[in-house]
UniProtKB/TrEMBL annotation:
Keywords: Membrane, Transmembrane, Transmembrane helix. It comes from Aaosphaeria arxii CBS 175.79. The keyword Cell cycle does not apply. PANTHER family: INTEGRAL MEMBRANE PROTEIN. This is Integral membrane protein. The lineage of its organism: Eukaryota, Fungi, Dikarya, Ascomycota, Pezizomycotina. The chain crosses the membrane at residues 28-50, 89-114, 126-147, 176-200, 212-235, 255-277.
Length: 319
């Protein structure tokens, strides 16, 4: 009996249906590849800023494109998980939380690397901050479900929503490590987000920014690597899911157009960046005296653009 209807926490299904939409090979690889490309580009940009050798406009454009794509897919897959929590088991929900961790790491690393660029345009700054805040909130909410699942040792074949209804079965052998790791990831992502948001609304350029950028990036790299290792270990597509889940079939290993599409979409940011680099796509200047040869990004002269909606001044809000 496969659990495919409304949540019934009193009956434990005999098996679990596969869900290639959230745990298929193509879906997992698209998140992992985007995360590692973005972390690598962020590291390159931060290192170049330390040396002050170049503004790296192409790398910045490419990083921004991958980050935009990751934040949309990250919010989308978390919304799917929460909307299906009456039928989705903890195995698939845990994979969604790992993917949301990759999405958060990608976007926070982008914020650390491109913080000065977002300061120059208040629309892009607030739009980026809004989507990152939504992504962080969804990630924290999914993390709370995971914590509750570990604490109660939820029956693996029950829907994740049952975690609030069934009694605890006693802590598992590795529950302490799982709880500590989950809390560390949630707290770390929240701290980096709060710091990035705070600095995003400051006019000053503090001297301690570079060390904080490096420390934050190292944490996000560790978070991304840890989430990737767990994905490859527990997913049916690349590893071995827990035997207690009892997945039916090998649907998450099979390749189809739906699994190939997320990987094909990764080519779009690269194509757009090549077109910009070759001069085939130009943006109309907002002023008549703008020079097309002027660098897109200039870290030596930071021009903070206040928000007319919130009346920003010196990085704070006027009352």
């Amino acid at each position: 009996m496969v659990f495919d209807k409304a949540s019934n926490c009193s009956v434990v299904p005999d098996a679990t249906a596969t869900d290639a939409g959230v745990a298929g090979a193509g879906t997992l690889l698209s998140f992992v590849i985007t995360n590692f490309i973005s972390l690598g580009l962020s590291a390159v940009i931060i290192i170049l800023n330390l040396k002050k050798t170049t503004s790296a406009p192409i790398s910045r454009k490419l990083l921004l494109s991958f980050s935009d794509q990751q934040i949309v897919t990250g919010i989308g897959i978390q919304c799917i998980g929460l909307s299906k929590m009456n039928t989705m088991v903890s195995y698939h929900f845990f994979i969604i939380w790992l993917l949301s961790t990759l999405s958060t790491a990608t976007n926070l690393s982008t914020l650390l690397a491109l913080v000065n660029d977002f300061k120059r345009d208040w629309v892009l700054r607030w739009l980026r901050q809004f989507f990152m805040f939504v992504n962080l909130l969804l990630g924290v909410l999914c993390g709370i479900f995971i914590l509750q699942t570990v604490t109660k040792n939820l029956e693996p074949r029950l829907p994740i929503s049952c975690v609030w209804e069934v009694p605890s079965r006693g802590a598992s052998s590795n529950s302490a490590l799982s709880i500590a790791g989950t809390i560390a990831v949630i707290a770390g992502n929240a701290i980096v987000f709060v710091f990035g948001t705070w600095y995003l609304h400051m006019r000053e350029h503090p001297r301690w920014l570079k060390p904080v950028q490096i420390v934050g990036l190292l944490f996000l790299v560790a978070s991304g690597v840890g989430a990737t290792v767990r994905i490859f270990m527990v997913s049916q597509a690349f590893g071995s899911p827990p035997e207690s889940v009892r997945l039916i079939g090998n649907g998450e290993k099979e390749w189809s157009y739906g699994q190939l599409l997320p990987l094909l979409l990764l080519i779009l940011p690269i194509i757009s960046t090549i077109e910009i680099a070759r001069g085939e796509m130009r943006v109309t200047p907002s002023k008549a005296d703008d020079d097309d040869t002027k660098p897109l990004f200039n870290d030596t002269e930071l021009q903070y653009q206040p928000s007319p909606m919130f009346g920003e001044s010196n990085g704070l809000f006027r009352k």
